[in-house]
UniProtKB/TrEMBL annotation:
Record's protein name: Mitochondrial zinc maintenance protein 1, mitochondrial
Upper lineage: Eukaryota, Fungi, Dikarya, Ascomycota, Saccharomycotina
Main location: mitochondrion
Lineage top rank: taxon: Eukaryota
InterPro entries, sorted: Complex1_LYR_LYRM7, MZM1/LYRM7
Keyword line: Chaperone, Mitochondrion, Transit peptide
GO biological process: mitochondrial respiratory chain complex III assembly
Length: 132
């Protein structure tokens, strides 16, 4: 496949990934897409001046994968003080509890024990999986 086709494929994949990650947040969706479009238009990316076109295409594919698997947006439930709705979708990478248990009791980089208050200051989280 030519570099132009690879770049176009990576660009389209990034746009699809932003749709999945930011589907209900119009401002973030537009900002992410504008950033992708701006970076794609540059012949040399000032943030990665030493990267070849192939490396930049790989980077964009990696960013797309990260957006699909690791970005989960949440919004606070209107009538509930400590409840949040998380946009978990089919591509979201879900860890297991073993990862959390391993981290318990570790020291933080500044000394002392790491806080274990959980997500969102100990608030309740409501998760729904979007099918589609």
């Amino acid at each position: 496949m030519s570099l132009a086709k690879q770049a176009l494929s990576a660009y389209r994949g990034a746009l699809r990934a932003t749709s999945i990650a930011f589907n209900s947040d119009v401002a973030m969706l537009q900002a992410a897409r504008a950033q992708i479009k701006t970076k794609m238009a540059l012949e040399v990316d000032p943030d990665m001046p030493d990267k070849s076109v192939e490396e930049r295409i790989k980077h964009l594919n990696d960013v797309s994968l990260f957006l699909r698997r690791n970005i989960v947006q949440g919004r606070k439930e209107e009538d509930e003080e400590n409840k949040y709705f998380l946009n978990i979708h089919k591509d979201t990478e879900l860890g297991d509890n073993d990862d959390i248990k391993k981290k318990k009791g570790k020291k933080n980089p500044f000394g002392g024990e790491m806080a274990s208050g959980g997500c969102c200051g100990g608030g309740e989280i409501k998760m729904n999986e979007r099918r589609g």
